[in-house]
Amino acid sequence: QSALTQPASVSGSPGQSITISCTGTSSDVGGYNYVSWYQQHPGQAPKLMIYDVSNRPSGVSNRFSGSKSGNTASLTISGLQAEDEADYYCSSYTRSSTWVFGGGTKLTVL
Amino acid sequence: EVQLVESGGGLVQPGGSLRLSCAASGFTFSSYSMNWVRQAPGKGLEWVSYISSSSTIVYYADSVKGRFTISRDNAKNSLYLQMNSLRAEDTAVYYCARESSGYYVDYWGQGTLVTVSS
């Protein structure tokens, strides 16, 4: 199972919006509405930010939103804040009943 | 409060074995499927293994199939990963992760570091 494709890095200034893409295949991202996104600060465990493509868990800011088109899912963060600086990973359920993660995207808040 | 606490990591020589444990609390452990996910130093997340709530279904990543065995003891609220024939590329932080009632991981432990080196 190949990893999902994410950009290695993105950046934005405080208050701006950024979007992180996550590209897979019809066997994972494109085949199911089971894409999730995780935020990971250095030295910490990942934290769930989005599940089932576009749903936010309780307690996650509404500045975080998710979407999907075909084999590509996206995470958008609006109104960037300094604390958003972290690594972000997408994940998808697959046709093999397993999970696959993206390679991760480092978000820098300028 | 959901808590997942991993233990059992450490330094092991190539070809050696190690058994990881994950102690769960704050939820009905027997009702949830569980996963192990690892992260090599400076690298991304890699799904390793899955086990259903009653242990009837298990899955493994191709990279560990035949070498690692996932198991659980619902009476002890514990998840395990038996790792044999360890290789340098198995060096990583190993996370215990709860799968929600849907198709995503909703809680992660803090991880335990496994280092495979001579």
Count of helical stretches of chain B: 0
Q: What percentage of the residues of chain A does DSSP assign to strands (E)? A: 35-45%
Spatial separation of the terminal alpha carbons of chain A: 35 Å
- Pick out the low-confidence regions of chain A: none
Mean pLDDT of chain B: 96
Largest sheet of chain B: 7 strands, mixed
State the share of residues found in helices of chain B, binned by percent. Answer: under 10%
Shape of chain B: globular
Structural class of chain B: mainly beta
Multimer state: heterodimer
* Gyration radius of chain A, in Å: 13 Å
Set out the fold topology.
The complex is a heterodimer of chains A (110) and B (118).
Chain A: E1 9-12, E2 18-23, E3 35-40, E4 47-50, E5 64-69, E6 72-77, E7 86-93, E8 99-101, E9 105-109
Chain B: E1 3-7, E2 10-12, E3 18-25, E4 34-39, E5 45-51, E6 58-60, E7 68-73, E8 78-83, E9 92-99, E10 105-108, E11 112-116
Parallel strand pairs in B: 2-11
Antiparallel strand pairs in B: 1-3, 3-8, 4-5, 4-9, 5-6, 7-8, 9-10, 9-11
Give structural notes.
- With 110 residues, chain A is mainly beta.
- Chain A contains no helices and nine strands.
- In chain A, the strands form two sheets. In chain A, strands 1, 3, 4, 7, 8 and 9 form a six-stranded mixed beta sheet that branches.
- The mean pLDDT of chain A is 96.
- Helix content of chain B is 0%, strand content 52%.
- By secondary structure, chain B is mainly β.
- Chain B is globular, with a radius of gyration of 13 Å.
- In chain B, 37% of the residues are buried.
- In chain B, the strands form two sheets. In chain B, strands 2, 4, 5, 6, 9, 10 and 11 form a seven-stranded mixed beta sheet that branches. In chain B, strands 1-3-8-7 form a four-stranded antiparallel beta sheet, with no helix packed on it.
- The termini of chain B are far apart.
- The interface between A and B is medium-sized, with 26 and 22 residues.
